[in-house]
Amino acid sequence: MPTANAHADALSLLLFTLRSGKLMAINLLKVSEIIPCPRLTRLPEAHPHVKGVATLRGVPLSVIDLSRAIGESPLANPEQGCLIVTDVSRSRQGLHVQAVSRIIHCLTTDIRPRPYATGDRSFITGVTQVDGQLVQVLDIEKVIHTVTPSQIEQAADVLSAADAERLARARILVVDDSQVALQQSTLALRNLGLHCRTARSAREAMDVLLELQGGPEQINLLVSDIEMSEMDGYALTRTLRETPDFQGLYILLHTSLDSTMNAEKARIAGANAVLTKFSSPELTNSLVRAARVVFPA
Fold first, then answer.
1. How many CA atoms lie within 13 A of 285 on its CB side?
2. What's this model's pTM, rounded to 2 decimal places?
3. What percent of the chain shows pLDDT beyond 90?
4. Rounded to 5, what percent of the chain is helix, strand, coil?
5. 130 by DSSP, 3-state: which?
6. What is the domain-level CATH number for residue 174?
């Protein structure tokens, strides 16, 4: 099987700090702009991690106190700092941070999975080194979920008997390095009466695929995140397409970014479809379309 290094993708990270001074990072593609912290309107019944609402070009923007959200000490001067405005998983929010440092460019292989010792309460998806200093990559989906938990919507349309039968035959593997995103996807599948295998990295996904290949539980439908540490969804897709046993595997890439900006790159990598997180009905519809391809008759 081809190695991950052969398919490493370029990645741009925005580095920032909180009060502790340690470096954190967020995928630059998830950032729409950086602005000084504006005047905020405080909402008395808002989540305690929400500092207030800013008005940005006439549009309200919820501002999350990132320090509080991830269990760090609050900023020394809560009126200073800046906002990292993000567009993630169909929502827009401002992250209040101490300061923005700089932008770095690296390869996805430079981002290592988060240390096992950090546990499931961790708000990072990976780590890297910049000039000898540890940088932690923020799990922005988990931060947003702590403030505004996603509601798993039921699909509006009842599945036809044929589509329900196709989905029942599907052997699905869901891959995501964000614990929250993985839980959202698996819960949506469970609500459809489906069971799936899960993996927290592309390497783990390949191990599962190889383990089950040729047996009764062989995977025939892969749902993979794109923005993963060490080996992203594009690289995973390209690797699988170069592996004879997996050239026919149906691959749906699931991204927290706008799927339209990823569609062409996903197609070139060899994915069958791409979808923006997180809408349970849209995920259901994508899985139905996938099952129709995998089980045409």
1. 13
2. 0.86
3. 67
4. 30, 30, 35
5. strand
6. 3.40.50.2300
